[in-house]
Structure formats: structure tokens, C-alpha cells
Amino acid sequence: MDPYPGLRNAKVDFNMPFLRCIDCDLILFAVMRLLIKYAYTTKCDYGKFTISYVLKIPTGEVPFAISNAFTFREDGKDLSVYALIDQLVRKKAEDYKDAKISRINIRIYLSEMKAGVTPIISDDKIASKLWECIENKVVVEPKKARTIGYLVRPGDDLSSAEKGIETYFSEDYPDFVFKTFEERSNKMLFDFIERLAVVVRHNPSILTVYLHNLSRFDGILLLKYYASRGDKYAIKPLMRNHRLYQIAVYLGKKRLFLLRDSLTLLTSSPDNLAKNLSPQLGSKGTIQHDEVQVSNLIPLQHQLLVYMKQDILLLGGVMLKALEIYWTICNVDIVTKLTLSSLALTIFRTNYYVQNNWSIYIPNRNEDTFIRRGYYGGHSDAYIPCGDNLYYYDVNSLYPYIMKSYTMPRGETVWHGKLEGQDLDNLFGFIEAYVVCPRTISPPFLPYRDEKNQTLLFPIGKFVDVYYSEELKYARDIGYQSIPLSSYLFEKKNSIPFKSFVFDIFDRRQEAKRAGNDTMSYVYKILMNSLYGRFGINPKSTVTEIYDYDRYNYLIKKSDLILGDKLSEHYYIVSYLRNIEHVDDTDWNPPKIAVVQLSAAITACARIYMYKYISRPDCYYTDTDSVVLGGPLLEEEISSTVLGKFKLENYIKKGIFLAPKSYSFLTQEDKGIIKHKGHAKSLVDNEWFESLYVDISRTKLTSVESNFNIDWKRLNISKKETLVNLGIRIGNKREPVYDNNLWVDTVPLDVTNFIGQENRIRAYEVMRL
């Protein structure tokens, strides 16, 4: 089916017995047949496609895409995609095994279509027995807003601010005019947006409108509406990595206002923010969202409107207080910033950074790509799976402590392509090195990125990767061998650029704590912890644009496409990857202050600092700035107020540590703590952890319901079931050790990978002999 020029949808349905994800050859055959019939038979200069499965589960069907877009035609020439599809299908077979497939879909994106279609295949009768091409446009209605409102220009006295709140309620619209709930909801949203435009036009000082969680809910509904009103409004959304930061709304050529997400600037819930910043306004309150139905909206009207007004009031109060605080203490206007990390960076540069004393160098594409290989982040590992009477320690502000205590790479970087024979002590920067980790080092110290499984390992063995020079020196001192191969070297001076920033903010936080000022303590905490990550921002990102057909046609041809679709008569939506490795220099457009060498150095030094505690034989678990130990730390290492020292977070009566970020323990106060990453975290409990500790291979295919799933192709919000293989993948970071069938320990993986540098390494070894 051709929903619009440039897109084709095709599918193949399966009846009993269904295909399984492990039936790789049959899946590959079905996909190729679809491509031959509906892609390769189309006359166009350029084309891409995506593949999706529909899995059959007891409660229904779960659709999901299994790939980004593959190019099948370029400059009018057909490309071979067989091997790519084969690899992808077999990878999904590892994840979903016996899961049943009821349908395979492909979406075909075409550029510069030409008239006429010449089929390549003639065995239509055989093909028709396997599948039938029909329209595959499943539109899920979004969860409509039932109440909506806003606060216009909150003043200093928020006690009367409720008078400035305008509200809309879907059931206030007569049902004899708007006969369905959908019609009433759409009319409500229409009136709200039109009224907002009027208010802004009559108040020129209103330039920005904040909505908390604009990115993941309100903004999606608003984007869809504005896209449908392309005859009146023009929009320019700013969307990165499926996060909506801002919508600029225009009337003609004049910009009316900006819609922004306050959650990216004040990263907490409205209730928690109000508790810290505007406690005099009270709490947000609660409402049982699952119990709200169309049938009981009218009886709940007063409750819903009171709840919404309080929510709006809290956000207005919080924004006003944050504006006052940051302007007073830092001389920075938060309205000029989109995120907390960018706000922290501005405060640092405005109040603490002296360029003449310490220069920040922005790497180019080659430099950034190389150094980013040495940016590994925190260290998370589970060592001993089960234990009693344990100590859970956290470091007080680990990264700020590193930032104020360690020398950082400064000045412009210089490339050195041949370092064999160089003394490591004379090198300062990021070094591609051949390293050897003997079995005697337990646990291993240096990280290694397993690209195949997308896992960060700490293995023994022989491998080549990029490391910060200071961690290579530390590794040498504990028994590693290494040969530097190439490097980007920096200037090393005993100047620490973040010392004054961290000392000042930390001291102010301690003063606020002593004075009982929770508001300012909170402000200083989030500021101090937000700076380092801004430097490491990845230039590679997913960009989503909403533009006209000409821009759409250009993007699907020139960009690394993820998805594309038609939103309305006026707008198309396209997502693609930006700043990928193979782009031309002219397409390299990194974020401002993308200084990856700083973030990479900070995290490397943090791993050095933590290794003393991780390498204890009684270390059960670690996660970046925390350790679980079998015995207590020395008294001089413990303080709840000194930067860089440890505080006892919990005394654990019994704990089970299955994998990084997947553990369960009982505290001394008999409080159960559970952490499990992934969609199924709501399904796990202590009994589940106990059962997996006994049999770690146990898995269960189950479905997880998400109440707010975003369909980025259609800008819809809906409930969605996701199929999850509930279990723990063991052996991908460390190997389990058993004693009489009881899991008692783990050992590191053994890695050998020279990434194509074998000849160079052997030549140096021969020369050294």
C-alpha cells in the first residue's frame, strides 16, 4: 500500500503454526520476497526500508521494529542487503528465541519516484499463496487530555495566583454538538491552544511557556495539533534522542512563543521540586489515574480541576523561585537555558572559569571520535552473588571530588601516530594501547568495550583500546603490561580548573544544610553534580525534524534514516542520525562545548579512586560511586560531610546481586530494597531474586504494559504491551563459579582482540627482543 508518495507498506501474515523468532531462514526468505516484490520493482533513484515483527502473546499481539533503516538502492543501483538482514534476524533470535511471529512488516522509503513499475518476478501465483500486500496502517488513538489549563505570568505573591489559572474540561462541551469523547477532547485542546495564542499576543513580554514533561506527554499532543494546523501556524520543534526540548510557534513569520520542558531544567517531580523550592504552596496531592474513565468524568470534575490547578500552581511557583535563586547567586537567567547541565556550564564559565589560566579546547571530528573510544563512564559489576551482614557505602559527590582533586587535560591536542618504545610516564592524553592483563589481577582494572554485545567489560587477556594515560600508568603499577601505539596528547600542568567551582558550591551546600535550608541545599547539590556530563555530550544523536515534503525527500536520501512518515497535509516527520562516523567534514556539527577529553578524564580518575575498594576480596558489588563490602571501611575513610569520603548508606542483613543494576537486599530496619533495570522491573520481587539465585538460567516470556507509549511516527500516546524475556543474561560480563551446584562467585572474561593491529604489535615485540 502507498499511504503517500515516497512510502510503501507491505506485510506477510502467518497463521497456525506461527513462525518463531528462531526460524531465521524462513524469516529471511519472507523479508526478501517482500523486498523483491515491493521495493526492487519500484522505479526510484534512492530507497531505504525498515523491518518489524508482530509477536503473538497470550494477551494479544505486540508490534515492534527490529531495525533502523537499510539502504537497498543508491543512485539508481540496487544494493545487496541479504547479509545485513541475515545478521539482524539471527541477533533477534538470540533475544526472543521461541516467541511466535504472526506478521512481518516492511516500510519502504523512496526518493524521486519515476512513473511505471516493472515487476522483476513473474510467479505471482506462487507469491500470492505466501502473502498478500494490504494496507498496514494501524492508528492508535492517543490518551486524550480530559483537563487542561495554564497559569499566566505568576507574580511574586503566589497566594492569589490561582486567579490567573484558566482551565478547560472536556465534559463542559455539549454532547449534542460534540457527540463523542474524542470530539469533546479535540475541541478542548483547540480552544486551549487558540486562547494561549491570544493571551501571548496581548502580553508581548510572555516569550516562553513551560510545561513539566513536555517531552514525553504534553508536547506530543501539542505537536500533533500544530502539525494539523499548518494552514495557520508554523512550528520548529527541537528534538534530540527522542526528547522534545522546545517548540517554537509562529503565526506567519512572527514567532508567538516558545513551548519548553521544565523537567530538563529542573530534573525532579513537581511535588519534590515544590517541597524543596516552594514548600509554602503545599503538596501536589494524588489522584487515581487508572480509575478515571469517560463514564465518571463528570462526578470527578471538581477533584480533577483542583488537582490540576495545584499542579499548575506548583510549577509556576517553582519556576519563579528557581529564576530568583539562580539570578541572585549566579547572575544567570535560567530562561536562556534548556537543560540543567547547560545551566551548570554557564554558571561555571560565568563565575569560575578564567580562560587565560586554563584553556578549553574543542576537539574536531577525528579527535573526538578517537578520544570518545576512551570515554567509558562508571564501573558497574556484580562479583559475589549472595551474602549476609554487608556494608553498602556511597562516596560523597564522587565526580565533583575528582574534578577538584585531579589534573585535567588542557590546551590543544597533538597527534602522535607512532608511540612504540615511548616511556609511558612522559605521555599525557588519550592513548591507543595494546594491553595485557594477567590472571593474577583480581578484579581487572581496565575497561574494554565489547562492541558485538554492546557491553562494558573488565576482562583479563590481551586487547587494544583507547585509555586515559593516567589509568594506563595506574594499570602498569598493579601488574598490567602495555605498549602505547598512537595518541592525542595534551598539555599537563598542575592547574585544576574546577577546584574553585566545586569548593564554592560544596561549601555553600554545607552552610545551607547547617542552616536547615533544604531549598538551597538541593539547588547546590544538583548544580555540583550536573557539570561534568555536559562536557561529554555525544555529537552523535538522533534528530527528529517536522518539515514539508521537500525537506522530507531530502532527508530520506541524504541522512542515516530511522523513520519517516506523513503527519498532516502540511508536515512530515523524519528521524535520522547526525554526526555519525562516516559523514563528511562539512556535515560535522557537534554541540557547543563538546569537550569529551574532560568527561573521559574525570570518569577514568573516578575508576582509579574506586579501585582500592573494588579490589578488596570482600567486594560483592559496585556501581560507579558505591560498593557493597563484607566488612566495614576504616573510620578515617567515612564521613557524611567530607567531599570524596564514604557514607554508610545501608547495613544489609541479606543481599542478592545477580548482575549490574539488578539486586535485592534487606536492610537492618527490615526494609526491602530492589533494583532491576528494564521494562519488567515492576514484575520482580525478592522471591524472584531468590529463585534466580538458585537457577540463574530461568527465564519467562511475559508482557509489560506501558501506559504512556509514544508512537513517534504518528505522534500518538497510547498504552502498549511489550514482550519481555524476564531473566538475567549471565556470563556476558563475568563468568559464574559454582561449588556443588551452588553459585558462589564470579571470574572475569578472557578477551583477545587486536582490532587489526596484530602486525604492528608483533613487529614491536620482535624489535624489543
UniProtKB/TrEMBL annotation:
InterPro entries: DNA-dir_DNA_pol_B (IPR006172), DNA-dir_DNA_pol_B_CS (IPR017964), DNA-dir_DNA_pol_B_mt/vir (IPR004868), DNA/RNA_pol_sf (IPR043502), DNA_pol_palm_dom_sf (IPR023211), RNaseH-like_sf (IPR012337), RNaseH_sf (IPR036397). Keywords: DNA replication, DNA-binding, DNA-directed DNA polymerase, Nucleotidyltransferase, Transferase. It catalyses: DNA(n) + a 2'-deoxyribonucleoside 5'-triphosphate = DNA(n+1) + diphosphate. One of its GO terms (biological process) is DNA replication. Gene3D superfamilies: Helix hairpin bin, Palm domain of DNA polymerase, Ribonuclease H-like superfamily/Ribonuclease H. Its EC number is 2.7.7.7. The keyword Nucleotidyltransferase applies. Residues 204-296, 302-617 form the DNA-directed DNA polymerase family B mitochondria/virus domain. It is an enzyme of class 2 (transferase). GO terms for molecular function: DNA binding; DNA-directed DNA polymerase activity; nucleotide binding. Pfam families: DNA_pol_B_2 (PF03175). PANTHER family: DNA POLYMERASE (PTHR33568), DNA-DIRECTED DNA POLYMERASE (PTHR33568:SF3). Belongs to the DNA polymerase type-B family. This is DNA polymerase.
